[in-house]
TrEMBL record:
GO molecular function: DNA binding; protein dimerization activity
UniProt xrefs under InterPro entries: H-NS-like_N (IPR054180), Histone_HNS_N (IPR027454)
UniProt entry tagged with the keyword DNA-binding: yes
UniProt keywords, alphabetically: DNA-binding, Plasmid
Pfam families per UniProt: Histone_HNS_N
Cleaved signal peptide residues: none
Name the UniProt record assigns to this protein: DNA-binding protein
Domain DNA-binding protein H-NS-like N-terminal: 29-103
Keyword match DNA-binding: yes
Length: 152
Protein backbone atom coordinates (compact mmCIF):
# COMPACT_ATOMS: atom_id res chain seq x y z
CA UNK A 1 0.00 0.00 0.00
CA UNK A 2 2.84 2.39 0.79
CA UNK A 3 4.45 1.73 -2.59
CA UNK A 4 1.25 2.84 -4.32
CA UNK A 5 1.29 6.12 -2.44
CA UNK A 6 4.94 6.75 -3.25
CA UNK A 7 4.27 6.04 -6.94
CA UNK A 8 1.45 8.57 -6.98
CA UNK A 9 3.69 11.09 -5.27
CA UNK A 10 6.54 10.50 -7.74
CA UNK A 11 4.07 10.71 -10.65
CA UNK A 12 2.93 14.10 -9.38
CA UNK A 13 6.54 15.22 -9.07
CA UNK A 14 7.28 14.08 -12.63
CA UNK A 15 4.23 15.95 -13.91
CA UNK A 16 5.40 19.05 -12.04
CA UNK A 17 8.84 18.77 -13.64
CA UNK A 18 7.33 18.20 -17.10
CA UNK A 19 5.57 21.56 -16.87
CA UNK A 20 8.84 23.41 -16.33
CA UNK A 21 10.89 25.11 -19.00
CA UNK A 22 14.41 23.91 -19.72
CA UNK A 23 15.94 26.76 -17.72
CA UNK A 24 13.67 26.07 -14.77
CA UNK A 25 14.60 22.37 -14.85
CA UNK A 26 18.26 23.32 -14.97
CA UNK A 27 17.83 25.55 -11.94
CA UNK A 28 16.10 22.76 -10.01
CA UNK A 29 18.82 20.23 -10.87
CA UNK A 30 21.61 22.64 -9.97
CA UNK A 31 19.99 23.56 -6.67
CA UNK A 32 19.72 19.85 -5.81
CA UNK A 33 23.33 19.12 -6.79
CA UNK A 34 24.73 21.95 -4.68
CA UNK A 35 23.82 20.21 -1.41
CA UNK A 36 25.67 17.10 -0.31
CA UNK A 37 22.66 15.75 1.59
CA UNK A 38 20.47 16.11 -1.50
CA UNK A 39 23.08 14.30 -3.62
CA UNK A 40 23.13 11.44 -1.12
CA UNK A 41 19.34 11.22 -1.27
CA UNK A 42 19.30 11.27 -5.08
CA UNK A 43 21.95 8.56 -5.43
CA UNK A 44 20.82 6.49 -2.45
CA UNK A 45 19.63 3.55 -4.58
CA UNK A 46 22.34 3.80 -7.28
CA UNK A 47 25.33 1.51 -7.52
CA UNK A 48 28.84 2.91 -7.34
CA UNK A 49 29.44 2.07 -11.02
CA UNK A 50 26.43 4.20 -12.08
CA UNK A 51 27.65 7.11 -9.98
CA UNK A 52 31.13 6.73 -11.51
CA UNK A 53 29.65 6.88 -15.05
CA UNK A 54 27.77 10.04 -14.16
CA UNK A 55 30.90 11.57 -12.65
CA UNK A 56 32.90 10.74 -15.80
CA UNK A 57 30.30 12.48 -17.96
CA UNK A 58 30.24 15.52 -15.69
CA UNK A 59 34.04 15.61 -15.73
CA UNK A 60 34.16 15.52 -19.54
CA UNK A 61 31.63 18.37 -19.70
CA UNK A 62 33.76 20.28 -17.18
CA UNK A 63 36.91 19.78 -19.27
CA UNK A 64 35.13 21.01 -22.41
CA UNK A 65 33.75 24.05 -20.60
CA UNK A 66 37.13 24.83 -19.02
CA UNK A 67 38.91 24.60 -22.40
CA UNK A 68 36.26 26.84 -23.98
CA UNK A 69 36.60 29.47 -21.25
CA UNK A 70 40.40 29.37 -21.44
CA UNK A 71 40.29 29.88 -25.21
CA UNK A 72 37.82 32.74 -24.83
CA UNK A 73 40.04 34.38 -22.20
CA UNK A 74 43.13 34.06 -24.43
CA UNK A 75 41.28 35.58 -27.39
CA UNK A 76 40.09 38.46 -25.23
CA UNK A 77 43.65 39.11 -24.02
CA UNK A 78 44.94 39.10 -27.62
CA UNK A 79 42.25 41.59 -28.63
CA UNK A 80 43.19 43.81 -25.68
CA UNK A 81 46.85 43.71 -26.74
CA UNK A 82 45.94 44.58 -30.35
CA UNK A 83 43.73 47.43 -29.25
CA UNK A 84 46.46 48.77 -26.98
CA UNK A 85 49.04 48.59 -29.78
CA UNK A 86 46.67 50.41 -32.15
CA UNK A 87 46.08 53.14 -29.56
CA UNK A 88 49.81 53.59 -28.98
CA UNK A 89 50.39 53.71 -32.76
CA UNK A 90 47.69 56.36 -33.07
CA UNK A 91 49.33 58.41 -30.32
CA UNK A 92 52.70 58.21 -32.10
CA UNK A 93 51.14 59.47 -35.33
CA UNK A 94 49.16 62.22 -33.60
CA UNK A 95 45.68 60.84 -34.25
CA UNK A 96 43.16 61.31 -31.46
CA UNK A 97 39.79 59.67 -30.86
CA UNK A 98 37.84 62.88 -31.55
CA UNK A 99 39.14 62.96 -35.12
CA UNK A 100 38.08 59.35 -35.67
CA UNK A 101 34.64 60.06 -34.27
CA UNK A 102 34.24 63.04 -36.62
CA UNK A 103 35.21 60.87 -39.59
CA UNK A 104 32.78 58.17 -38.51
CA UNK A 105 29.98 60.72 -38.13
CA UNK A 106 30.64 62.15 -41.61
CA UNK A 107 30.70 58.67 -43.11
CA UNK A 108 27.39 57.74 -41.45
CA UNK A 109 25.66 60.94 -42.53
CA UNK A 110 26.78 60.59 -46.16
CA UNK A 111 26.00 56.90 -46.51
CA UNK A 112 22.20 57.27 -46.35
CA UNK A 113 20.87 59.09 -49.40
CA UNK A 114 17.72 61.15 -48.92
CA UNK A 115 14.54 59.49 -50.22
CA UNK A 116 13.53 60.48 -53.74
CA UNK A 117 10.17 62.15 -53.30
CA UNK A 118 8.16 62.48 -56.48
CA UNK A 119 4.75 63.50 -55.08
CA UNK A 120 3.69 65.58 -52.03
CA UNK A 121 0.15 65.98 -50.69
CA UNK A 122 -0.89 67.25 -47.24
CA UNK A 123 2.54 66.48 -45.77
CA UNK A 124 2.56 62.93 -47.14
CA UNK A 125 5.24 61.99 -49.63
CA UNK A 126 5.46 59.21 -52.20
CA UNK A 127 8.26 58.17 -54.52
CA UNK A 128 5.89 56.84 -57.17
CA UNK A 129 6.97 53.26 -56.49
CA UNK A 130 5.10 50.61 -54.54
CA UNK A 131 1.64 50.93 -53.06
CA UNK A 132 0.05 54.34 -53.06
CA UNK A 133 -0.22 55.92 -49.62
CA UNK A 134 -3.73 56.72 -48.37
CA UNK A 135 -3.70 60.42 -49.41
CA UNK A 136 -2.92 59.41 -53.02
CA UNK A 137 -5.42 56.55 -53.31
CA UNK A 138 -8.32 57.13 -55.63
CA UNK A 139 -6.54 59.84 -57.63
CA UNK A 140 -6.33 59.43 -61.38
CA UNK A 141 -2.99 59.87 -63.10
CA UNK A 142 -4.08 63.35 -64.19
CA UNK A 143 -5.01 64.37 -60.62
CA UNK A 144 -1.81 62.81 -59.29
CA UNK A 145 0.26 65.08 -61.55
CA UNK A 146 -1.09 68.10 -59.62
CA UNK A 147 0.89 66.90 -56.60
CA UNK A 148 4.15 66.22 -58.46
CA UNK A 149 7.10 67.79 -56.68
CA UNK A 150 9.13 70.15 -58.83
CA UNK A 151 12.82 69.24 -59.22
CA UNK A 152 15.21 71.59 -57.47
Amino acid sequence: MNSLKSNNKSDKQIKNVDGLTTNQRRDVVLSELKRKSKIRTIFKDCEASEIKEILDRIESVFEEKYAEETLKKQNHEKMQERAQSILSEMEEKGIDMELLQELQFKKDSLSVPPPKVKYMKDGASWSGLGRRPTPFKGLSDYELEKYRKLKD
